[in-house]
Amino acid sequence: MAIPPEPIQELLPQATLIVEAQVSEVISTDAFPPQPKAKPGATSVPGKTPKQVVKLKITRVIKGNASGEITVTKPEGHYMLSVGNKGPFLLKDDQPNPVIIGRYGPDTYTVQSIEHTLKQLAK
Question: What is the pLDDT of residues 70-108, one digit of tens each?
Fold first, then answer.
């Protein structure tokens, strides 16, 4: 059974930058982490995808300050990014690059739900 995404109310306070953007380049992709072994009779085996470093072309800033293109890190997780993926990216300051937060990538939360929740959290 898939794990649901984190509640948006928990993620937004962690995000120092929220942008609508498109992946313009995949700079690097680590090797795939070891995958769990399937138990007899299993119909699927949850696994993780590797860490990636990607370049995002920003189309709009929802929270924080940024412009143009930024290099970010997608940690090991449940999805891969490729050139052309777009949507809202929730980012947390880190070194050497901001890190994408959230379990399932830029199509998990709509821009409208992000903006609505930011307004609710500001009250």
Answer: 999 999 998 999 999 999 999 999 999 999 999 888 989
Q: Where are the alpha helices (DSSP H) in the chain?
A: 8-11, 111-122
What pLDDT, on a 0 to 100 scale, did the predictor assign at position 48? 87
What are 57's two structure tokens? 């072309």
Sign of CA dihedral 88, 103, 17, 71: negative
Cα dihedral 9, 14, 16, 19, rounded to 10, equals -50
Query: What's the rounded Cα separation, in Å, for the pair 108 and 55?
Result: 19
| Phi, psi (deg, nearest 5) at residue 104 | -125, 15
CB 43 within 8 A of CB 87: no
